[in-house]
Amino acid sequence: MKNMRKGKNGKCIWKNAAALLMAAVLLFGLSACGGNRQRTDVSVRELPIIHEPEFGGVYITISIDDFNLRGFRYGDSVDLSFSNGYTLDDLPYYNGYYVDAGEPLVIAYPGYAYVKAAVNYGADLWETAGLTTDDTAAIRLNTPGKYRAIQEARDIHYDDERERYTTDEIFANFRAVSVTGLGKDIFYRSASPCDNQHKRAPYVDRLMKDAGIGCILNLADNEEKIEGYIQKEDFDSPYFLTLYEGGQVIPLALSMNYLSDDFGKKIAAGFTEMAEKEGPYLVHCTEGKDRTGFVCMLVEALMGASYQEIVDDYMLTYDNYYKINQKSDKAKYDVILDKNLVSMMKTVVGDDQADLKKTDLAAAAKAYLIRSGMTEDAVERLKEKLK
Questions:
Q1: Which of 108, 319, 299 lies closest to 189, judged by CA?
Q2: Cβ neighbours of residue 130 under 8 Å, at least 6 residues apart?
């Protein structure tokens, strides 16, 4: 070969050249994707946006993978701006809802088609920002890794493959709620039996048929969304369909904002209607985790469950999905309990400083429902149905 450098004994000097070439490739790759510590000018601009009303957020139309390839990393601080002039600076970018209720973030939740901006358990950002479909969004890196410690401490995710779970019940997050005051096998909770985005709906459908469920409180959907699920090729929930066509499904289409008056009013209306139907009852949202967690907490408290019973049932979902419990990961267990359930319970009680272990939770739950529009007679009817 021509122009090949020779070393001693006539051997080609490849090692140094190869090492230099590899270093150059790695340096270029890291710079291109923002992997180095000196990330600069990491941004996306003029991206169309989509309103996401169920969780009250704004989809920014770039896929999670593409967004991360631009140089963004979970735990970064970012600045968000919309073309109408509305801005939010120094937002954490996470792959989960790792901020307190009412706080904004940019999120790349597993399974989302796009990156999203939202307020966790808060007001609809689309409405707050006064956005329209003509507006666009821009996101710029503010401080690399500013929130990385929180990201690493709270990072959780689960799989949608049945074989990774030991039972159908665990996979479907399906169980009868068993606490003080509730009748045996009268009130169940689960993932969605109709929305199959997490591949759990057919399993929930078979389990609720075996349990003889007579009425479903669907927290996630309205009738239009349910009809859409039924038309999909992967819909395989015949028992749900029978109940739906028989008028035994109550769709509430709750947002995630449990701090809002509308959230409480919808629950009160749903419970009032549920009390006129025969059980056993099933309550679900999409995963059977957040909105379902709130509603189950409310029912359990109303029926006389202790603080610890409510905690144990709520956290069982995190064991089912993420294998997080007090033994496996106490730090994450404690953070989830404090940031999620404790915050929800204090909203019902109406006192951020309340000692929940000493609070009359039954009285607080009843007062919350009456404040939200449920009559005292309707509350008593519901309690009778659930005994």
A1: 299
A2: 84, 86
Residues 89 and 141 placed together within one structural domain of the fold:
yes
Handedness of CA 28, 33, 37, 38 (dihedral sign): positive
pLDDT level of residue 32 (50, 70, 90 thresholds): very low
Give the model confidence (pLDDT) of 260-308 as tens digits. 999 999 999 999 999 999 999 999 999 999 999 999 999 999 999 999 9
HSE, side-chain direction, 13 A CA sphere, residue 352: 3
Amino acid at 229: Y
* CB of 156 closer than 8 Å to CB of 172: no
pLDDT surpassing 90 at residue 313? yes
**Residue 177: burial class (beta carbons within 10 Å; 0-12, 13-18, 19+):** buried
The domain spanning residue 141 has which CATH number? 2.40.30.90
Answer whether residue 363 is part of any domain: yes
| Distance from C-alpha of 292 to C-alpha of 53, rounded to nearest angstrom | 18
Q: Which residues contact 35 (CB under 8 A, 6 or more apart)?
A: 29, 71
Is 24 part of any domain?
A: no
Q: How confident is the model at residue 38, as a pLDDT?
A: 62
pLDDT tens digits for range 202-261: 999 999 999 999 999 999 999 999 999 999 999 999 999 999 999 999 999 999 899 999
pTM for the complete prediction?
Answer: 0.81
Q: Helices 291-303 and 307-322 sit at what angle, rounded to 10 degrees?
A: 150
Q: Are 361 and 308 in contact (CB under 8 A)?
A: no
Residue 173 structure tokens: 């997050």
Taking alpha carbons only, the member of 64, 126, 117 closest to residue 91 is 117
> Do both 328 and 286 map to the same domain?
yes
